[in-house]
Amino acid sequence: MDVKLIYLDNAATSHPKPESVIRAMVAFMHEAGGNPGRSGHRLSIEAGRVVFEAREKVAELFGLQDSSRVVFGLNATEAINLGLKGILRPGDHVITSSMEHNSVMRPLRALEREGIEVTVVPCSREGFLDPEEIRRAIRTHTRMVVLNHASNVVGTLLPLSEVGEICRKNGILLFGDAAQTAGVFPINMERDKIDLLAFTGHKGLFGPQGTGGLVIGDRVNEKSMEPLKRGGTGSRSEFEEQPDFLPDLCESGTPNAVGLAGLRAGLDFIRGVGLEEIRGHEKRLTRQLIQSLLEIPGTLVYGPQDAEKQCATVSFNLQGWEPSELSFRLDEEFGILTRVGLHCAPSAHRTIGTFPGGTVRVSMSYLNTEEEVNQAIQAVRNLARKGS
Asked: What burial letters (b/e) apply to 91-122, b meaning 16+ CB within 10 Å?
């Protein structure tokens, strides 16, 4: 039996994209398509304009005055690696939380082998972080605190701005991972005292996969940063050394310009709707989902269970069911698409008590509807009555 698919895996990648994003990418391939910054002909210039405008819109979204400090890359993972490996040196100390994604944990574990000390501050079973735990973990050689803005497992919001105050008072850099919150929550790097911000284009920003980047605040001296890669930038071509200015220092090789055309359109879509409206809609869906799941006998809902304290990501399990079987049946019988397992965040699952089995994760976006959430809830009810 054919069923209409309901996509509830937006924490992995948002789907569908706004039609304006798709049109912008098609238009780029028809009307631009040159290599930005590499040639002087009109198609290269047009491609360069698209990339520049995308950079300007990212800077505006995050309250940055100088858009040259927006470095584009493939995704938040690449941006996190650039920020960590580009700044930290042997002998430095870095603090993070127990709710982090492997995009933070794996680079930090690798850096430990190179002489960098790592402290993982424990969070509560709901995923909350007490800023005082960060303060207590600071040492004389602490260089950086790196935290996600919201958990990709249970959606819990971490107190970036409060930690930012602590970091500023102690001369420490704050590195925020906005993979789950960019495009939904207002983030202002200066107000929130964030020095580095990793973002991805393909989630809340409604852009395509293969877009994202690192926003570098002015407290970071780029001349002391090490890029992840070196090569052609279209600038200073007479020299065989890498340029020492942003964004060229960290952007070697032909960029994903068609993807950035889509990202630019996604940013325009967000601006047209407004962050307040987007966040409000997602809160309504989150509240609806949590309240209804808690009414189903045998359902265990993890995280804050409070739409005000989390993004639109909810993890749950159903007693008597393996998460993988439940997710499979939701897909096969009802067309409800969720994500199951550890969500590339084993530390977070240890924190909330669901390691190694994991959870079923439902993650919504502005483009989901109340009716879709209702159908997902009814599907869980039906399976709970049937039993595994």
From this structure: ebbbbbbbbbbbbbbebbeebeeeebbbbbbe
